[in-house]
Structure of Long-chain fatty acid--CoA ligase:
Amino acid sequence: MSSLVDYSAIQSLPEVWAIAAQRFTNIVALHDPHSKPETILTYSQLCQNIQHFASGLQALGIQTKSTVALIADNSPRWLVADQGIMMAGCSNAVRSSQAERSELLYILKDSDSVALVVEDQKTLKKLFPEIQNLPIQFIILLSEEETTNETPIKTINFQQLLNLGSTSTLQPSHLSEKDLATLIYTSGTTGQPKGVMLSHSNLLHQIKTIGVIVQPEPGDHVLSILPSWHSYERSCEYFLISQGCTQFYTNIRYFKNDLTQYKPRYMVGVPRIWESLYEGVQKQFREQSESKQKLVNFFLKNSERYVINKRIADNLSLDHLHASPSERIIARLKSLVYAPIHFLGDRLVYNKIRQAIGGNLKAFISGGGSLARHIETFYEIINIPVLVGYGLTETSPVTNARTLDRNLRGSSGQPFPYTEIRIVHPETRQPLPNGEKGLVLIRGPQIMQGYYKKPEATTKVIDADGWFDSGDLGWVTPMNDLVLTGRAKDTIVLSNGENIEPQPIEDACVRSPYIDQIMLVGQDEKALGALIVPNLEALKKWSQDGQFNLSFPDYHTSRTEIEKSDLYSKPVQDLFKQELNREVRNRPGYRADDQIKVFRIILEPFSQENGTMTQTLKIKRPVVTQQYQDLINGMFE
């Protein structure tokens, strides 16, 4: 970590940018190839734009310690606005412009925002007429659109603000580490969002410690796809840009091409992104001739044996934490047996996969959910490290992470510096010994100040000793790696009293090439059930290869028609039963109650667009349950 820029002496986040501009002056900081016009900012230009944005806000009369709402999406201008607001001595309340109108209005009101920075005129119009009754003194458009006189609230565009700032003198804001930096409203899956209060100290802890995971070099390319306002992407961006990286903005439509074109060294993402890359590779494999498919499968099977034995030998296997020295020696010998096949597979197959996704990756940084074991193993086989971390919005967010030196697959890694993890009994709150599963409590410098204007909600999750209740279940290894097993509120309790954590079983089921997405159900029932979104392309190929001559509906077919279609024919139903049984039984720690006894097929994928997924692509279980309640009830009749 010696090559990292040291920010230990600063008191607030905006102080980063003058230091970065001095160190990395002409290196490109931000590059948005998909904006019109294309946007490229060097470190010097970025710092200047942030300063002009801040002095422009001050010229408009903003008072220090005020809150400014920032409702916008990924772009270089987002970072300029975010840091400009803080440099002016204010905090911001952030949200996507794509959020529901009612949610945006709730945030504007709840946050006591006195000014609004908004994506464009279209987003602004969503907020009328209610915005006129809020104490908003002025509005800034992040676009170059001409402002209109439709509202009595003073409105200027991005360039006009920068021009104003360039002719004004920036007044120092004298921020301290304890000052509020941002309010991030939890999207969650139920109830009204709560404003998580993160201080400059919270965010600076991330900048000062994420270097334990990765040590980037100035000019390293980084690909950004997650929402910039989200705590996970935001803290990683702050850190990577503070170290002189060049950040390229991408989106779901372009990111596979951008991987190839911009050859990132690092990319921050969530499990669904790594799964989609994996599925793309599997699709290419299925399109090869039968002989090539056999060869690829031969390499993959033997490489899996190689990496699993190597994990045991290196004491990095979650299933063999207590392996004896002799067991590790045997595993080492087995890995040596499989090594020649693995390295031949690397030369013939895996190297081509790496080249197809840029050929320059040092690591994927993953958060926002668990990574299925087969996905972990696949990336290990093709030699692209995936460093999984853990945290919540309330923890700024990262508390734990794996590193290149200790990449214990299946875990969320060891705690960050100055961070403590405690596992307690969910009901008695008594501490549990290593290896026992319980509720995860966290204490450290990254814990939020509290929920804005909600002291009772704050005291429910942060106790008198500063321990934050994560709501997650997990256990800790002898080496202090955190292993998550699910959300306390996601636990399915069967009628026989058995508690089932759905996530690990779902992760196992999506190993099947015929299952694209799955959500377990079965609260208070005798057995588990599932809603399955199939991979229609793989099903069609299976049908053709098996000469079943089945036809499948498209994604827009009604539920009634789906149930009359070949998706509910005996061959297809038998196929899914076989796939579910195999994948669930092959899962480590399998129990009889884990079996999925009933299921229904749905064709509309879970997504942000239809409201069934969060911004970090986690399934909103209560929303899906409500949406498909009749279907769920029907499968248990």
The mean pLDDT is 94. The two ends are 59 Å apart (CA to CA).
